[in-house]
Every structure is written in C-alpha cells, then in structure tokens.
Input
Amino acid sequence: MACFLVPTAEAIIAGVSKKSVKKHEKTESGKIPFSTKLGWLVKMSAFGAILLAFEHVWHGEVVPFFPFLTNAVNPADRAEMFHEMATTGVLMAVLITVVWIGMLVAVHFIEKSAKEVKEA
Output
C-alpha cells in the first residue's frame, strides 16, 4: 500500500546528509569519500522505493488521482496502511541499510589491503 514511502524517506534523508557531508569532507588518498558511500545508500534506497512503487502501481494500490493511495480514502484502511509502513516499509529500509553497512565493511578491508600492498 504505502511501504515504498519509508525507503523514499530514507533516500531523501541520506541525500541531504550526503550534500552536508560533502561540504565538510576532506578526502584521503586511496580512500573512497564518505559522501560517495552515502550516494550508494541514496541509490539503493531510491531504487528499492521505485521497485516497490512499481509493484504497488501494478496491483492498483497507487492511482493517478488524489489521494493517490487507495487506502488513504477510508480511515479504517489508513490504519492498515500505516501498519504496513511501520512493518514492511521499515523492515525494507533496515535491510537496505544493513546491506549498505556490509558494503562499507567490505570496502574498508579492500582499502586496507590495497594500502598494505602499496606500502610493501
């Protein structure tokens, strides 16, 4: 119903954070800037939200007229919609973030081994 709004919000927040971090960032030689890594999170969250939105459009849960979400019309359906956002949407955003953190850990070890090879 509206679970795609949570990863969308995550992408927006990460995008704003990326711009803020980029302003104050000092780049180190041989390391990927953190703003670039935040860009990965933005892309992953946005792509996940787009896929979820497409699935909801496909099933007729998103319509091209106000209020755009079919469950936003009836107050009883809104409770179900918010429950889906709180469960499925948050779970998807957390999963995307966990995968991103895994990517950061992998990149850290790759950068570390590349630095050791360069020093040797």
Helices lie at 5-23, 34-58, 75-119. Residues 42 and 65 are 28 Å apart (CA to CA). The longest helix spans residues 75-119.
